[in-house]
Here is the input.
Amino acid sequence: MSQDPSQLHPDTVAAQALGWVDERTRAVTPPLHVSTTYLRDPDNQYRSGRVYARADNPAFDQAEAVLAALEAGEQALLFASGMAAATAVFQALKPGDHVLAPKVMYWSLRNWLMNFATEWGLQVELIDMTSPAAVQAALRPGRTKLVWVETPANPLWSVTDIAATAQAAHAAGALLAVDSTVATPLITQPLLLGADVVMHAATKYLNGHSDVIAGALVVRQGFAASDYWQRVRKVRAQLGGTLGSFEAWLLTRGLRTLHLRVRAASASAQRIAEHFNGHPRVAEVLYPGLPGFAGHAVARAQMRGGFGGMLSIRVKPGPNAGPQGGEAAAIAVAAHTQIWKRATSLGGTESLIEHRASVEGAGTPAPPDLLRLSTGIEHVDDLIADLEQALQAAHRSPGA
Ligand SMILES: Cc1ncc(COP(=O)(O)O)c(C=O)c1O
Here is the structure.
């Protein structure tokens, strides 16, 4: 693309994957590079900059460039999964470093932080990241090296003010990293709000078709040469959480429709949230796009063009309910949906429904009556009708 991507709409950047053309063949979609190794020059140098594909691979170039452009960052790195990307952020720190992370966050990363990372010497403190006072009180100037934010955060969709948290973290000498998987760069650009690193489970909206596990980090302008980011690069190259070539190629293809998918999912999620808010069989709808939601004001300030495709509903117990009525009712609703697929994950074209406490187990912040909904790009009327019939059917189930 001859134009500066920062002057273009994200739709144009995504749809053309930055407009790259293969110079040798004039192909408008990228070739698939599968080589694991690269030739040395006759004088024993490696001027191509590539040696071995564990560290880097031309198959990554296009997806990384598109992601860096969409996030207005300096450089992006693809990883073998969202977890590989997220853990690289922490593995680049040193034993004894203090980090802050939210109590409400993607459960598998919270689990890794509290067990593995802690055993390796990181001092991890979980706090209420939505409260600026709690962040301020927990920061230890000079000792806190990183603050991790997820916004909106699984599975309650709690919203954290990125700009305010960046300011507080930086004042204490800490970096700010944001898991922006749910918002996507179409809705929020954390680096422009002051974050140093943004992370994506590219498995979700970025790829968007539930057929690739991938992760990505993007670093802010002026920070790619930092010691910290060089350590992140080494974590990928040396620990080997490197994405496969075919997955990188599929990810580039998925990114071309990111803007259409995210807008469709967000618009439908807003309609679904409004429809079930106050519904007689629903105790609560959790969605940043609802004016009554706790984080709505912050969400309005830092999210644009919608509030994302993720929401949760809490199901009321039915007339035949036992002591675990809400939980049984929620599980029965998930069992009765036909269009909403009963599976974990999010951000694909198909809508998914999940009883979150069953996945997260002990210590989950998810109430037992909570269903997590990943809105896909089907017709919203079909999605609402399917949930309606499932709520009615669950209502008649014994114990629910
Ligand atoms: C918000 C968030 N972050 C990180 C991850 C981890 O990504 P992956 O499953 O690709 O490792 C997930 C996965 O569900 C997620 O939802």
Remarks:
- The pocket of pyridoxal-5'-phosphate is lined by residues 81-83, 86, 106, 109, 150, 154, 179, 181-182, 201, 203, 213, 215, 345-346 (CB under 6 Å).
- The CA atoms of residues 40 and 52 lie 11 Å apart.
- The longest strand covers residues 144-150.
